[in-house]
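Section 5.1 Outputs to date
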Amino acid sequence: MSRLLQLGLVGYDQWQVSNSSGTLLVAPGPPPVTVPESAIPFYSVHAIGVQSNFILPAKDFVLFFKYFDEYRAKARPQGRTIAFGFSWTLRIPKPQPAKP
């Protein structure tokens, strides 16, 4: 295998699990208007998307791309996430070729 292409379904869930404390600035003053953070409901969001990986095993190189679409966001903005990147493995020390 000199080249590999992977496609898959990905997703995530995020939710707040503890109470907030402190105050939030609602409107700058004078006088400033604040509300306690406990008045804001817990946040949560869910997302589903796709991921693709392109792998070159002989070169120790990987490219990836991810796309997530969020849904059912509560007490936070809802949006989309796009991520891409690569990794390259350095072999130190380099493996010695096999002797015939």
